Amino acid sequence: MKLGRIAVTGIAAAVLAASAVSTALASASPRQGDTLRGLGARIGLRVGTAVNMDVLGSTGVDAPYTAITGSEFSTVTPENVMKWQLVEPTQGKYDWAAADKLVAFAEQHGQRVRGHTLVWHNQLPNWLTGGTFTNDQLRDLLHKHITDEVTHFRGKIWQWDVLNEAFNDDGTLRDTIWLDALGPGYIADVFRWAHAADPKALLFYNDYNIEGLGPKSDAVYAMVQQLQAEGVPIDGVGIQGHLDTQYPLPNNMTANVARFDALGLDTAFTEVDVRTFVPVTTQEVLAQSEDYTAMLQACLAARGCISFTVWGFTDKYSWVPGFFTGEGAACIYDENYQKKPEYDAVAQTLALAGGAPIRHRG
Ligand code: G3I
User: Whose CA is nearest to atom 4 of ligand 1?
Assistant: First the structure.
């Protein structure tokens, strides 16, 4: 049975909490004309979105989509077009066109780019997954892929998601083509290869279900500590932030982000959205806003949390309905580009933090 979060905490408590902060909000509310990127800039935090390159273009398919992407955000992440399947659909023949277009858009709009993603078990080219290769050949192919892609974009990528989703939820290493062929040492290697190709890019490990304390985030924590001890060039941990109102809030997100921070690592919320069953109820909207706020607050509490990126800003193109039957409404804008309460929650949380000095290193 679906148990909305607000049903647990109580509507009365939510209303009381809202009224308790109303005075503070009145003095630190976003003003007309404020954007998320502007509110983030006041505290040194980049606010970003994943971008669907099928619909971005100055005279493109969807003009409002393009305009909001340019105005509301100070960092962009390609939702798909830097993944191996899309950049090398045929072995040895690269197609950088869509990714180059996003990088150019970002330059025109004063945005930084999160590169996503170099090493993953998903969205690999068919020639790779369907081919027959020895382990040594797979190692060479992965090395070449990382070297070629990072070199192509050298100097243009702020943060690279070097390795994506390498762990299972219980904290064991995920059984992937890369673990099978190369063994666990592949993790250190891929960071070294990326660093060699662009020494200035920030190199991230990125995963979901590591928002709070738990076995998976413990495993990531242990991994990054070990990488640091070995002198492997890793700069940050990307916390995806795909939440769902039918589940409790992750356990103590602030403490979790803080422990990565304490290792001297950057952190980033990289793929934030909050799905729910549709049609959405008022209670669920409150729960969604609460989740967006909680993730942003956990980021704001950490000195090294340098960006907060939503995984698409409009329900019009969200990945959620295609992957979770009956769920959706996960974004901060609706299908018609109207700002939702979730947008207001993010904007208000940024505005409330606006009095603080700049603490981020972005
Ligand atoms: O490229 C084909 C196109 O040729 C074809 O016509 C079309 C028909 O459905 O499919 C297209 O591929 C789709 C691709 O997105 C590009 O649109 C795939 O079917 C679809 O599965 C793929 O989904 C992406 C998904 O990653 C793949 O696992 C989502 O858009 C993307 O939002 C999602 O993003 C991931 C992050 O990279 C990593 N973290 C989780 C996150 C959500 O799953």
Answer: 86
